[in-house]
Each structure stands twice: as C-alpha cells, then as structure tokens.
Write a structure and sequence with these properties.
Elements (H helix, E strand, L loop, with lengths): L1 H14 L6 E5 L5 E4 L4 H6 L3 E3 L13 H44 L5 E3 L5 E3 L2 H19 L2
Helix pairs in contact: 3-4
Length: about 150
Amino acid sequence: MMRYALFPAVLALWAGPVFADLYKCIDAHGRVQYTDQPAAACLQKGATVKVPPATPPAATAPKSLQEQELEFRKRRAEQAEAEAQAQKEAQLKAQNCEAARANLAVFTQGGRVIRYNAQGEREYLSDEQRAQEIEKWQKEVAQWCGT
C-alpha cells in the first residue's frame, strides 16, 4: 500500500519543470499555431517565431500576522521619526528667520552701529560697512524666511 502512495510523489518530482521550445506559426490563412517543432510551411515564408518558455512566478509564502505587524510598526516608527525631523527643521528655520530679521532691523533703523574689536574697544561702523551688513542680512532673511 505504501508503494502506491509514493508513486505519485516520485512521479511529480521526476517530472519537474519542462524546458521545451515553443514555436508560434502564422500560416498563409492567418491562423496561429503553436508547436514544439518549427512548421515547414512557416519556415518557407519566414514567419516562425520562437517563443521563450514561461518562467513560473517565484513562490513566496504569505507573511504571517506577526511579520505584518512588525513591518507596520517599523513603517510607523520611520514615519514618526521623519515627521519629528521635519518639525525640528521647521522650528530651526523659524528661529533663524527671526534672528536674521532682528539683525537686519538693527542695521536699518538709522542709528550709529558699534562693534567691539579684539581688544574690547568700541568701533563705529562706516556707511560702507553698514551697507555691506544690510546686504548680508537681507540675503539671510531671504534664505531663512523665503521672501
């Protein structure tokens, strides 16, 4: 009895995948024929087309619920991390925008502007230096504030 049960299993393993050539032939009447050998009628007219064998799709086992849950949690964590990073960058951009506008206001309000040099002494900015600083802070405002 066991011998009869093993026969189909052995036959299935022995058969395996078949890698035969398949030919598509369109005859003079326009009929399409598929054969494993080139047809003589088609060879004379040059209408034989060799069709490659079909490859079986890769057998992938369905994912278990645990694997699906793990992937879902991973995606959620990556998404939360990306949102936190975007929020942090937006906050930094807003702070830089505010600082650039404040510095621009210092140079455009119309009073004398001073700086401290390396010795700790006050130096007054000339009109040329002031114009350079205004141009510099206008570029910073444009960069950080988008205006």
